[in-house]
Amino acid sequence: MSVTIEVVVMWAAVTLYAVSAIVNTVATVFRWHRVQSFVVSVGALGAATQLVALIGRWVRLGHGPYLGFYEVVSSYALIAVIFWLILAWRFRGLRVLGVVVMPLAFLALAGSMLAPKAGFEITPTLASWWLAVHVTFAKLSYGAFVGAFFVSMLFLLRAPIERRLAPDIAEKIPSQNVLDDLSFRLVAIGFVFLGVMIAAGAIWANEAWGRYWGWDPIETWSLIAWLVYAAVLHARLMMGVRDRKFAWLAAAALPVVLFALVGVPVVYHSIHGAYLLGTD
Amino acid sequence: MAVGCVLAVAAYSVFGSIVPQESVAPARASQWTAAHPTLAPIAHFLGLFSAFDSPAFIALVVLLSLSLTACAWSRTRVALLAMAPHRDVKLPLVNASSADLSAMAESNDDPLGRLHDALGESGFRVNRDSGRLLAEKHLWSTLGSPVFHWSLVALVIAVAIGQLTRSEGVLAIPIGASTTYSAANMTHFDGGPLHRWPQGVAFSASDLQLNTVRGGVDRGASAVVTARDAAGRSVTQRVYPNAPLRMGSLLVHPYSWGYAPVFSIESTAGQILASTRGIIDQKQAGSQGAGPGSFDINGGPLDKAAVSFFIPAESVDAQGRATLAQAVEVSVRPSGDASSAPVRIAVGERIPIGQGLWIRFAEKGQFVSVSIADDASVAFIYAFFVLATIGLSIAVLVAPKRIWASVSADDPSVVFVRVRGRRNDPLLAEKVTDDLRRRLGESFTVEQKGSEA
Question: Given a cut of 80, is residue B85 above it in pLDDT?
Fold first, then answer.
């Protein structure tokens, strides 16, 4: 797939995300419940379109979407949409989360389209299977934690949200017990994935440099995120924290992992420079 | 306390991440110090440049490890109790969820037996004893938490032992020659206090390629490295990033390469008195040439004299890349005297350097330097990573359940059911009720009597 075609396909995905976001927002405000399926379908089509562009770029460049601002941010937008689609498929009432997820995905993808799209070369350090494992589990953990965040926010803001929705949509929102359980499961899955990401990164570092841990800021902050979510899980499983308190914990922990994944390469001089900024 | 330790380590790590760590990135630490003249003294005073080597951090980690051990111990007891077969006791879990249900059959035709079958279909292991029934499912998952916690304890111990026994350093290996793996031959060496040198290990290198292309990616300079131990075992492979050579606990990575001209100190009659190999790293190469390098003459009338050499460029291409000459420029500075003017000598030629001695440029030569990490703990750390992940996955994703059922003394068509499950499971009652309703069908009415999560 040539660069021109890739860019055209990506802009098509941006457009579809925008349509889904706008229609979802308008439908929510005016309580047009019948367009919910349309919103989800357009969002899914946008994700599929973006996936086609991503695969084409992967084949052309020979590496996945993990080098440079454009690739990283666009792939995170895709992961967020995919997680929303899975939740919406599993629980029809969670389609309402599209009101927040789709605008954010649109902004992220549109923003990434403004960044340079030149492919960065795979350096000798990056040429490893462990990179693919590490990045895959990073994105999966991010998606799970973002999902937990939105489910927790839905739990906390249920009353005002239900007031805004059409009655037959509001009644489809899963019960508070289901939301509470789902939030816990997403945090748990994200925690497992985050641990695998850290382990894969350590193994890769040992293969590439002969040391599995060097207290680089990205390594340190990944560990911090893991420790924070460990505390959240302990609060649930050992200290009986549930419902509103757990929802607040799950929501408050997200900024830590967001900073670890996106903020550290920007703020610190880190080995993850290539990851976001395209520098080694 | 364990949660407190976890959060304390996390908070400490936030501060530790503010500045580069001297032990792993000394150059970046120096740059940070130069770039932050006001903050640097404060950071030094607070010990931030070695935050993760400090006694405070070690104490935190020790405390966390002790908490982990205590947690692992208590969870092991809980898991063993929970898995004890056929014990008619509640799942001894803190904050375990429980639910009480009643299942009313339309007829008195062995409702307990039908419940027995329904639970069996749901994957429970069911035991019936006259008017009572005990069903268990996934009780093995209670092992997940102790496995996870014990693995973390083992991981911390392995890392600690590894830090005490590991070493890392750089070894320069002339192409076509062999170098013994020893402290004398290593540079940039850092070893733990309990590190033991493996005896009789030597490295040799051959076939230096400056552009090693593998899988469509230029991996940079690489050489074929052979490691040989005292028993004669050897491992040979081309070493480049992400393709290290392994022999036992040794892990060999490429570090650099360069030029290694061989010089011999001779008498006027041509008798070789000493032979030395000079080293010039390729990072010292530019459009003018490569170098300078230097070595000292030891012994003889020119003892302690310093010899400097430079490999001049023969030509420079449009990109500024130099092609080196087949010659070196040599100058000698006898001890206490000024240096002589550089003299150019080609391969095989020699020049007088005073006191009846001559220096000959015997051989051009190249070298490759490798970083050698000696850490026997890595394999154990990997294994404990895997175990911890498996234990964690089981602990959080597989929920144990235990169900007791007994027929009502007043009405044989009614069965009382008590369910115990993973702590804080708000859906325990709902899931079990829905499952029983589906399996028992319309001939049963299943209702929740109460639940605690």
Answer: no
Q: CB neighbours (10 Å) of residue B396?
A: 23
Q: Dihedral of CA B31/B33/B37/B43: which sign?
A: positive
Please provide the DSSP assignment of B357-398 as one string.
EEEEEEE--EEEEEEEEE-TTHHHHHHHHHHHHHHHHHHHH-
pLDDT at residue B93, rounded to an integer? 47
**Closest chain A residue to B94 measured between Cα atoms?**
A238
Chain A positions touching B78 (Cβ under 8 A) are: none
* Closest CB to A124 among B217, B382, B422: B217
Q: Mind listing the pLDDT tens digit for each residue in B108-125? A: 778 888 888 888 988 998
**Contact partners, residue B42, CB within 8 Å, separation at least 6:** none
Q: Which residue in B225, B396, B423, B427 has the most chain A C-beta atoms within 10 A of its own C-beta, making it the best mutation to test that interface?
A: B396
What is the model's pLDDT at position A7? Answer: 93
Enclosing H/E stretch for A20: helix A3-30
Contact residues for B71 (Cβ-Cβ < 8 A; gap 6+): B2, B149
d(CA B333, CA B306): 5
CB atoms within 10 A of CB A120: 20
Name chain A contacts of B20, Cβ cutoff 8 Å: 269
If we measure between CA atoms, which residue out of B280, B245, B242, B256 comes closest to residue B208?
B256
pLDDT tens, B351-387?
988 888 899 999 989 999 999 999 999 999 999 999 9
- Six-digit token pair at B335? 């001890």
Instruction: Give B453's pLDDT tier (boundaries 50, 70, 90).
Output: low
In angstroms, the CA B354 to CA B345 distance is 16
Q: Give me the mean pLDDT over the B61-80 stretch.
A: 90
**What is the distance between the alpha carbons of residues A204 and A227, in angstroms, rounded to a whole number?**
21
Per residue in B51-61, pLDDT (tens digit) is: 888 888 999 99
Condensed to tens digits (0 to 9), the pLDDT of residues A19-61 reads: 999 998 888 888 777 788 888 999 999 999 999 999 999 999 8
Give the SS3 label for residue A180.
helix
- What is the C-alpha to C-alpha distance for residues A182 and A191, in angstroms, rounded to an integer? 14
Question: Tokens standing for B375?
Answer: 């850490």
Q: Which of residues 91 through 110 in chain A touch B, CB cutoff 8 A?
A: none
Cα B333 to its chain centre, rounded Å, is 47
Strands B167-174 and B186-191: antiparallel
Distance CA A139, CA A200 (A): 13
Predicted model pTM: 0.88
Could you tell me how many residues make up chain A?
280
Report CB contact under 8 Å: A127, B13: no
Q: Is B344:B289 a contact under the CB 8 Å cutoff? A: no
Flag if A192 and B3 touch (Cβ within 8 Å).
Answer: no
If DSSP codes are grouped into helix, strand and coil, which group holds residue B85?
Answer: coil
Distance CA B104, CA B129 (A): 20
